[in-house]
Amino acid sequence: MFARIPEKFIHLTRWSLTLGWLLLIASLFVDPFSARLTAPGQVFAASQDCFQFQGECRPLESYPMGARIFWGMVLPLAVLMLLIFGHEAWRRICPLSFMAQLARGLGWQRKRTISETSWLGRNALYLQMGLLFIGLNLRLLLVNSDRWLLGIFLIFTIVSAITIGFLYNGKTWCNYFCPMAPVQMIYSEPSGLLGSAAHTAPPKTITQSMCRTVDQNGQEKSACVACKTGCIDIDAEAAYWDTIRQADRKLLYYGYVGLVIGFYLYFGLYSGNWRLLSAGVWNETDQLATLMQPGFFIAGRAIPIPKLLAVPLTLTLSTGMTYMIGLWVELKARRTNKRLGYPLSLDQVQSRLFAISTFMAFNLLFFLGVRPTLGYLPLFCQQLLSWIAIVVSSLWLAKTWYRSAQKYNRERDANLLKRQLHKLNIDLYQALEGRSLDDLNPDELYALAKVLPGFTQANRLQVYRGILREAFEQKSVIPAKSLKAFQPMRQNLGIDEESHWAVLQTLQLEEPHLFAQQRWQTQAMEATLYRSADAQNLSNYSPTDANRTEIGTKAKTAEVQNLEATVYRSADVKISRQPAAEPKNPANRQPNPNSENTTVVKPFEDSSNEATTGEEQ
Length: 617
Description:
Layout: H1 7-29, E1 50-53, E2 56-59, H2 66-85, H3 87-93, H4 95-100, H5 102-105, H6 119-143, H7 147-167, H8 172-177, H9 181-188, E3 212-214, E4 220-222, H10 236-243, H11 247-271, E5 294-298, E6 301-306, H12 307-339, H13 346-370, H14 379-401, H15 405-423, H16 429-432, H17 442-451, H18 457-474, H19 482-485, H20 487-493, H21 497-510, H22 513-516, E7 528-532, H23 545-555, E8 566-568, E9 598-599
Antiparallel strand pairs: 1-2, 3-4, 5-6, 7-8, 7-9
Helix pairs in contact: 1-2, 1-7, 2-3, 2-9, 2-13, 6-11, 6-12, 11-12, 11-13, 12-13, 13-14, 15-17, 15-18, 18-21
């Protein structure tokens, strides 16, 4: 939905939101106006004359609304936007992401990217979850209602984003550092309620929140620099299924539920009053002085644990508890699935548990944190918003419940196959009995490809080559995982593995830009070696980092047509120190149609345990 909105309009929206955010930050330091709205008898005034805090009834005074607007209105609206419209809406208009790209707009951005094999590349989500945890602790300890400290905190965050945007290319801040990124994953994966489907988009489509720019002719074009493989901005659902079994995802989904519970539970444990938020208390301006005061007030007694320790203790225990409960429920669900004969794949079991976690987190966030602060609205409006939250989250859960990696792959493959069949010079009218290709489901398309009159092996290879070409062009599949990703497609088309490698080599030689301009060429593919017959001196070749850098640089030019050796490496496997041996049986070799002197050496296929195609039992 948001992916189709013109970039010019989105650019103006980003500027407007950024200026509005900066104005809000400025109001945290100087605001002579909004305090009038919280004075007694005004719209945002507290519902009582005093509020109960650790056994005392403290008077309420008027206060500027900057902190309340940011925490109580802006962030909840962002979460609601993620659930309804998906990440493609928020990541296109996010002010912080926009400011992280200022260096690129000014031409100052460096061309450096984060290596997928580096510590940061492998642990980015853990780092972002850690920053989110620290941020929530800082909010409870210092910046929840202290306007000055909140302003300093937000300015520091903006400076950090701009600095990262200067040091690294692309959306490095968003993908590797932003503490909001885990929240985006939870509420927008595998898709928002009204999110678009990137895997069924037409060729050369700039999908979802993919980086884009407008050229001199007013046409939008991709500005992707491949700063991250499996990018959520290109295809969120593909990234979701590709990483669903990673341990950091379980910690994120199961632990986040406890983080929400612990955060709002602490307001009651700290004040001894479960109606603290509904009282409209947003003006604790001396939070530094409260750090060493009792952090718990339970059953009418102050617990002598400083607030400085009580806050992280509460969040750690609640997060750890729901994480352990999530792992236990997952174990029970897998055993039940096994006992029933695997009606669901392991990925689908995992996805449904993640969906339940998201559903719980969203409703806990709304009813514990947002609903109590809506006392300034008429009762009818409060009830209406509550029902909207329930209905929206329920519809999202129903949509996500029946998604699976197998269904995603079949939709992607059927869409690619359909487009290639359209290109064939074959009369389909009689075979389809008056129907069009667009009316066929994936099973019917595969059956048609098998029985189509005049559909020769050459046609099948032509179709398969077109499928690979479009998949690489759209970045929906990387070459390293294409063997596994398109295994069902090859089975239905009657294409063997050797033909797959021959097609890959042909694409590499004829359209090197499909490989050379993608980050997978040096950091995301496995040790894949193409060599020509006159490169026999590579038998003892052992690539070094310098070699890889040199090869990657050469491969980025379209003029490189006769590569002696192009080495691709992956974060999943160790780089191969020896080139693969040639097949002993010459009959098994697939000659390159463009060169009689070229031999195809089969690349090493993905050895990761992640399921990328089909239902894994």
